Amino acid sequence: MLKEEKNPALEEAVADTTALKALIVNYIGSSVEPENDEVTVEMAINVFAEEFPEFLMAIAEENYFRGYEQALVDSQVVNGEPTAD
C-alpha cells in the first residue's frame, strides 16, 4: 500500500496581501481560531468546502475537464495522431 502524500502547499500560511485575502483570512481566522494565528491554505479549503461548496465544485470540475482534455491531447501526441485544434 502506498503512503498517501500530503501536498505541502496546504500547510502554507496565507498572507493578507490584498483586500479580498484580508477579508478571507480574517474570516477564516475567527472561524477556525488557529493556535498560532496563522491561516493556512488547508484551513481556507475546509472553510470554503463547508460554507461555499459550489465555489470549490466549480473549480474542481474545471480542473477535471482541463486535465482530461490535456490527457487526451497528450495521448494523441504520443500515438502520433494529429491534434484537432
Q: How far is it from the N-terminal to the C-terminal residue, by CA?
A: 40 Å
Shape: elongated
Overall tally of structural domains = 2
Name the helicity range: 55-70%
Total helical segments: 3
Average pLDDT, rounded to a whole number, is 90
Rg from alpha-carbon coordinates: 18 Å
Q: Provide the β-strand percentage band.
A: under 5%
Order of helices and strands: HHH
- What structural class should be given to the helix and strand makeup? mainly alpha
Q: Main sheet, how many strands, which sense, barrel? A: none
The low-confidence parts are none
Strand count: 0
Write the layout of secondary structure elements.
Blueprint lengths: L18 H14 L8 H11 L1 H26 L7
Helix pairs in contact: 2-3
Report on the structure:
There is one protein chain. It is elongated and about 55 Å long. The protein has 2 domains: 14-51, no CATH class; 53-85. The protein has helices at residues 19-32, 41-51, 53-78. The chain is mainly alpha-helical. The relative contact order is 0.09. The termini are far apart. The longest helix is centred in the last third of the chain and has 26 residues, at 53-78. The model has no long low-confidence stretch (mean pLDDT 90).
